[in-house]
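Write out this protein's structure.
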Amino acid sequence: MGDIAENETSFYSNAEGYWKEVPPTVDGMLGGYGSISSIDINGSKAFLQKFLGEGEGKTGTSCALDCGAGIGRITKRLLLPLFNTVDLVDVTQEFLDKAKTYLGDEGKRVGKYICNGLQDFVPETGRYDVIWIQWVIGHLTDDHLVEFLRRCQKALRPNGLVVVKDNVSYEGVVPDEVDSSVCRDLEIVHSLVGRAGLRIVYEEQQMNFPKEIYQVHMLALR
């Protein structure tokens, strides 16, 4: 990956430039695949609910963080219904501004709107039961992803979880020049998670997505 992002600065600034041009809508967030939003949310909910609840080793529901939150699609339909408070972090201020209206009345349970790239973002220590990272790890270099996951681990409450949901390539690292990102295969994702000192508690593939898009996997990490 080092070779791809020879110029790390342009890797990040090109991505910021790309997202600045994207309309602040669900379709914009999903690159024209707005129609898959419900399938995506239902898959995520079934995955997450395996861990939540009362009892030994269960993950709490007081506070969640939505990473690369955009206009708050996941916050609105997945996280706010399950958690008391949700924080949003995204690199594009316009999306966060839009989230304030898009989230409607439930938006008053948002704790913080944070405008920051994940490569620089330091989540508050011990604040979160769940840190949800979806369709955004491709915007981080390998080293930055490892460092970010380490910071996420410190930001968890007892029995907290980091969830990564993202595209996986069949083999190797596939660059996307359009939005200045990469898609990694599962083996590479696993090795980066290991480097960050996290273990995979559970993993599954999101089903029922269109055939022509990448496979999407969900990994619960602690």
